[in-house]
Design goal:
The protein is an alpha+beta fold. 40% of the residues lie in helices and 36% in strands. The protein has one domain (2-148). The chain has helices at 2-48, 54-67; strands spanning 72-78, 83-99, 102-118, 125-128, 138-139, 142-148.
Length: 152
């Protein structure tokens, strides 16, 4: 009976250790995903504040792009003086999680499309976009672990 109790404790410890390792990776992925989503929501607010005219939109797009050079990528943009406009972005983020000298770094990619009407305040909306081929496969030295969505 003592042997089975000891075996149960050892199994529990092994499971706990393995869970802790998986949790670092899962936590880093969740943190990276939330960072990418936050960047996308921040960009939405900036574009909504700049949708009054084309020059304001162009300035906002450039501001979003240069806020994180190499990580906030403009994939496509169309803007006219009046009417519909659109801009697609890829947001690449990398974070780390862990403790006690054991850290895991995870990078993700989020691609989104913004559209709205020039001169119509608050008309900008954002939707998920499939990330196209040819995007960077690393954030710094951290390989992209996958593409994520705005929600889910």
């Amino acid at each position: 009976m003592r042997k089975s109790a000891l075996s149960a404790v050892l199994c529990g410890l092994v499971t706990l250790c393995c869970t802790a390792c998986a949790s670092s990776s899962e936590k880093a992925r969740a943190t990276s995903t939330e960072a990418a989503r936050a960047a996308a929501q921040n960009a939405l607010q900036q574009l909504r504040g700049a949708d009054k005219d084309r020059s304001s939109l162009e300035a906002a797009i450039e501001g979003i792009r240069t806020a994180q050079p190499g990580s906030n990528l403009v994939l496509r943009k169309t803007a006219a003086d009046r009417g519909r406009f659109g801009v697609d972005f890829a947001f690449l983020t990398s974070t780390e999680a862990g403790g006690g000298g054991d850290y895991t770094k995870v990078a993700v990619r989020l691609c989104v499309s913004y559209s709205g009407d020039v001169g119509v305040p608050g008309s900008v909306v954002v939707v998920d976009l499939a990330c196209p081929p040819g995007l960077p496969d690393k954030v710094g030295s951290v390989p992209i672990s996958g593409d994520v969505r705005l929600s889910g």
